[in-house]
Structure formats: structure tokens, C-alpha cells
Amino acid sequence: MTPEFPSACIFDLDGVICDTAKYHFHSWQIIAGTLDIQFDHAMNESLKGVSRVESLKLLLKWGNMQVSESRFNELLEKKNEHYIELISQMSPDEIFPGVLEFIQELKETGVLVALGSASKNARIVLKKLNITQLFDAIVDGRHVTESKPSPEVFLLAARKLSVSPEKCFVFEDASVGIQAAVSAGMRVIGIGDPKVLNGADFHLKGLDQLDLATFKRMIINLN
Ligand code: BG6
Ligand code: MG
After folding, report:
1. % helix, strand, coil for the chain, step of 5
2. Ligand 1 atom 1, closest CA
3. Distance from CA of residue 69 to its chain's centroid?
4. pLDDT band at 1 (very low <50, low <70, confident <90, very high)
5. Pick the catalytic residue: 14, 140, 173, 201?
6. What band does 222 get if pLDDT is binned at 50, 70 and 90?
7. Among all ligands shown, which has an atom nearest to the Cα of 84?
8. 6-30: per-residue pLDDT in tens?
9. For FRET with 152, which of 36, 120, 145, 208 sits at 20 to 30 Å CA-CA?
10. Which atom of ligand 1 is nearest the CA belonging to 14?
11. How far is the CA of 164 from the centre of ligand 1 (A)?
């Protein structure tokens, strides 16, 4: 049987729609610096898609450090202050190439479009990029209790759209995000390095490699 064309596409934000990963990296680097923990791009890769709280826990683990609850919360706040300062300078020209065109094509064929992000700052970024109105549903870090790899964020997006999970396609750049989509029973396209993104149905360097016709061909080849 030919696999069905999806009724909905759910997009991660950071790393799929725009390069906020570099702003997360800079902000964590400052926090790591104050703690005297070495922090590099490979470590940042493991933080992709991971919630703020879980990210700080990992950073402290890598530095073999323990802090009090109040210090923990203070560090979280500081990280977010730096991050908000950076994203407040964002503008629509930071949307990755091909994103708007592909989403527009989906909408024109009647496919619903949702955001499924771990970030509590997703709304701010969408506003800065001037794309809030593109999404039929927005689920972000403020709506979920479990972070990726839990499927909660994607299942909630599907529920908001009234679409069953098997009719959804997810676009993700993080390993934990791919795991979340697979656990949700959804198809998933990994954006980035295929070596890091195990489990995705397809891999792309970016959405500029995809248009509706290519997407349809990909789906026909699914088993
Ligand atoms: C994800 C990012 O989208 O959001 C992670 O990939 C980040 O790096 C997480 O930690 C939470 O974001 P925020 O904005 O709530 O700190
Ligand atoms: Mg991401």
C-alpha cells in the first residue's frame, strides 16, 4: 500500500526554522565559564532539543559539580537572560532558506502546520521572525511536563490539530527530537548530520532541499 500523504507537519523551531542553536551555545558557554567547566560544540550538540533544566543538569554532570537548588535556579535564570538578550536582536532574515516556501506549499495543499518546540522562548522567536501566524497550532516548552525524548510535545500538537499521530510528519534537528517523534508514532525527517540523527525516515541538510514534489516522492518510497 502506498503510504499516505500527511495531514499535518510538525516543525521543531531551534535548528530547523532558524539557527538559535548558536545563541543557546553562547549562553551556555557563559554559564560554563562562570562555573569553570569546559564547554564545546560537541557538548552543545548533545544539548540540542534538551530542556533548559535538563541541559544545566548535564552541564554540571560534565563538570562533576553539584550546586544548591537556589544556585541552580540562579544559573538557569542567568542562562535565559543571556539567551533573551541575543534573540531580542533576531529578525526575519534569520529564517533558514526554504522554510517559508515549503510551509507555504504545504498550506496550499491543505496540510496543517504546527510548531513542536522544547523552548519556553519559542513565542518570542516566532514573533521576531514574524511567522507566528503561519502555524495552525503552537506547542512549546510551556505546554509540556516532559521534555523530548518524551513524545508529549508532538502528541499534544497532533491533538491540537485533531490529526492522528500516524498522519503527522515531524521535522527535527536533534537526536532526542527524532526519538520523541518515533515514540509518538510519527514519520520524521532529520535535518542535519545523518550520523547524529539515527532513526529518522529521511535526512536533509536543510529545508531548502525540499519542495512539495520532492516530499511526495519521498513518501511514495517509504515502506
Ligand atoms: C530547544 C533547544 O529547542 O529548546 C535546546 O534545542 C534548549 O537547546 C531548549 O535548551 C529549551 O529552550 P529554552 O528557550 O526554554 O531555554
Ligand atoms: Mg531543534
Report:
1. 50, 15, 40
2. 49
3. 28
4. very low
5. 14
6. confident
7. 1
8. 999 999 999 999 999 999 999 999 9
9. 208
10. 3
11. 26
Q: At residue 196, does pLDDT exceed 90?
A: no
pLDDT tens digit sequence for 46-96: 999 999 999 999 999 999 999 999 999 999 999 999 999 999 999 999 999
Q: What gap in Å lies between CA 27 and CA 42, rounded to an integer?
A: 15
Query: Closest Cα to atom 16, ligand 1: which residue?
Result: 52
* Residue 24 main-chain phi, psi, to 5 deg: -60, -45
Using most ligand atoms within 8 A of CB, pick from 25, 50, 179 the residue to mutate for ligand 1: 50
CB atoms within 10 A of CB 68: 8
Ligand 1: residue whose CA is nearest its atom 4: 119
> Ligand 1 centre from 222 Cα, in Å?
31
Q: Which residues contact 40 (CB under 8 A, 6 or more apart)?
A: none
| Count of CB atoms situated within 10 Å of the CB of 137 | 19
HSE-CB at 165 with a 13 A cutoff on CA atoms is 14
Annotation says 140 is catalytic: no
